[in-house]
Design brief:
Elements (H helix, E strand, L loop, with lengths): L1 H22 L5 H4 L18 H25 L1
Length: 76
């Protein structure tokens, strides 16, 4: 059981890294660290659509699975 949890946690960690990097692909380096793009300080927020929305929810699901596997590995 412990071996399965370790392998599952490694796989979910890799998937989580990939999903996060895919979400950051369209942004500039400054905005990835919280920098604003506009001169007036206001930023334009757009709603997620299509593949971007599915990638967002997949990131949440994989992140939750990672936390569950981490807690289960502490219990066993």
């Amino acid at each position: 059981m412990k071996e399965f949890l370790s392998i599952a946690q490694i796989i979910t960690a890799i998937l989580l890294i990939v999903f996060i990097l895919l979400q950051q692909r369209g942004t500039a380096l400054g905005s990835a660290f919280g920098g604003g793009g506009g001169g007036g300080g206001g930023e334009i927020y757009s709603s997620r659509r299509g593949l971007q929305k599915k990638l967002f929810w997949a990131t949440i699901v994989v992140g939750t699975l990672f936390i569950v596997f981490a807690i289960l590995s502490l219990a066993f």
